[in-house]
Write the structure tokens for this entry.
Amino acid sequence: MTTTLSDELVSVPEGFDRDEVEQFLYREARFADESDYDAWEALWTDDALYWVPAGGADIDPARQMSIIFDNRSRISTRLKQLRTGRRYAQAPQSHLRRLISNIEFLGGRPNSSGGIDLELGANFLALESRARGNELWGGRVTYRLRREGADLRLAYKKVVLVDNEKPIPTMSFLI
């Protein structure tokens, strides 16, 4: 399928249905909001990358600090630590709800297994309610989804916070 986006042709790989893709993104957000770590972790591919840059959108994570720069192994380790109950980021835990909007299909991107991932962009706004007050987090997310059999999986997630060039309050949840 080919669509037009700002007079630019965007090639969408075969097998990606808009409704299914949107439902996947909403489900991923819900799992993160509800701290359903098992379900959230199961969404990722084995070669996944989860990145939240600091100090700009297009930094080099090998040379500059990131808020999060996790491969699949580090994602698993981070979640195992949360599940132990001995390593926690906050007590009591924040209540979260996020909105995902302006979902755009950005085209296909080759992946390490020789296939094509679907790259998407979306805006988000997350409300975090915790004992000391509420915090709003907003930004732009780039996702890469991969079809594995009948399922969609998350191969890449880059979250660029609107104010990532400023000091950021403690973020103790999955953005």
Observations:
- DSSP finds three helices and eight strands in the chain.
